[in-house]
Amino acid sequence: MTSDSVITLAHGSGGLDSENLMQTVFARHFQNDILARLEDAATLDLREALPGGAMPQKLAVSTDSFVVEPLVFPGGDIGKLAICGTVNDVLMSGAAPKYLTCGFIIEAGLSISLLDSICASLADAAREAGVVIVCGDTKVIEGKTQNGGLMINTSGIGVFDPEGAAAFPPIPAGLVPGDSLIVSGALGDHHAAILSARMGIENEIQSDCALLTPVVTALAAAGISVHAMRDITRGGLATVLNELAAASSVTIELAEGAAPVQPAVKALCGLLGLDPLYMGNEGKMVFAVAASDETAALASVRATEIGRETAVIGRVLLREKTETLLAPRVFMRTSIGGTRRIDALYGEGLPRIC
Questions:
Q1: pLDDT tens track for 254-294
Q2: Which residues pair with 312 in a beta bridge?
């Protein structure tokens, strides 16, 4: 197998070509003691996941499939995205990610050298996240294009430390009237990077694809009681906030201009008529804390490399029982004193963003 080889249907036959692909690409990047057992199902000793061999009282499990186009984009690729997306979902439950499964659906025609570089990126992100890939699967299907394609499914398992910080776990229904709402950075970077790459628009926009571990760790270390937190992906901040408000039966008030947006992203939005509130990220989160914890939360997250632009964007209000179903769950207070209704994303946003 040479560096300019491409995937063929024979690589999915289960024979020598499959074995060659496993050894020259996947095993080279993902090898560990658990995978080396060559079992049909990984056997995990959860006592190894916590200090002192304590048994976790419960687990967090998440699964996600990644179909982004293009496979490589400014700031990342589908391999890095697959790790960051699933690890971040586990983190949002308040659990510590420990194990991942990884399945590849490869279209015939995909360059093996490209597959190798994506696996290297995926393995690097897994090491950074401190997770072990414990099992996986590969399927090869007929390619829709001459250059093939790639889809990845990852499932993550996280553990809750029975002696961990009392601040966790947060829950989607955890918003309390009076809470401050905080975002960990600028909106729309990933969405704008993918869209620019597809449209051939030259700019300096980079995807924010990143692990949110430093942010969550900083909040826990500071003893901040996080009432709810979510990563901001498809549908954007507006959709996430509507989901949280519905789960908690509260109203959310945003301040116009409070959410940070990079100048290049703002310029692209102006050109294409987009709203950053509805654009996806892959390395940002929104979280709610008591107003008394706002200052400490800002200081702790801003001290991290990925949280320097952290900002307070609004607050949680009591939702009156007399309000009608048509009353907005999320609204924005404008600079001239008016209000703007902020609904969840309606219709189809940018497809295949993750």
A1: 999 999 999 999 999 999 999 999 999 999 999 999 999 99
A2: 182
How many Cβ atoms from other residues are within 10 Å of residue 304's Cβ?
19
Predicted local confidence at residue 162, as pLDDT = 67
Given phi > 0 = left and psi -120 to 50 = alpha, else beta, which region is 82? Answer: alpha
Q: What's the mean pLDDT in 194-201?
A: 95
Phi, psi torsion values for 255, nearest 5 degrees: -100, 130
Q: Which two tokens stand for residue 189?
A: 């970077």
Cα separation, 145 vs 109, whole angstroms:
8
The C-alpha atoms of residue 247 and residue 174 are separated, in whole angstroms, by 8
CATH superfamily for 9-159 is: PurM-like, N-terminal domain (3.30.1330.10)
pLDDT tens, residue by residue, 21-66: 988 899 899 988 888 887 788 888 887 777 776 777 789 999 999 9
Q: Contact, 66 vs 104, CB < 8 A? A: no
* Predicted pLDDT at 93: 92
Residues 6+ apart with CB under 8 A from 222: 296, 297, 299, 300
> Domain coordinates of the chain in residue numbers?
9-159, 180-341
The C-alpha atoms of residue 333 and residue 329 are separated, in whole angstroms, by 13
CB count in 10 Å sphere of residue 144: 11
Q: Which CATH superfamily does the domain covering 180-341 fall into? A: PurM-like C-terminal domain (3.90.650.10)
Contacts of 17 (CB under 8 A, 6+ apart): 8, 10, 11
Q: Distance from CA of residue 306 to its chain's centroid?
A: 14
Write out pLDDT tens, residues 199-243.
Answer: 999 999 999 999 999 999 999 999 999 999 999 998 999 999 999
CB atoms closer than 10 angstroms to residue 106: 22
Question: At which residue do the structure tokens 């991290």 appear?
Answer: 304
Q: pTM here?
A: 0.91
Distance from C-alpha of 160 to C-alpha of 139, rounded to nearest angstrom: 33
Let me know: does 24 contact 133? Beta carbons within 8 Å: no
List helix spans (H) across the chain: 16-21, 27-30, 78-91, 112-129, 189-199, 213-221, 236-248, 263-272, 294-302
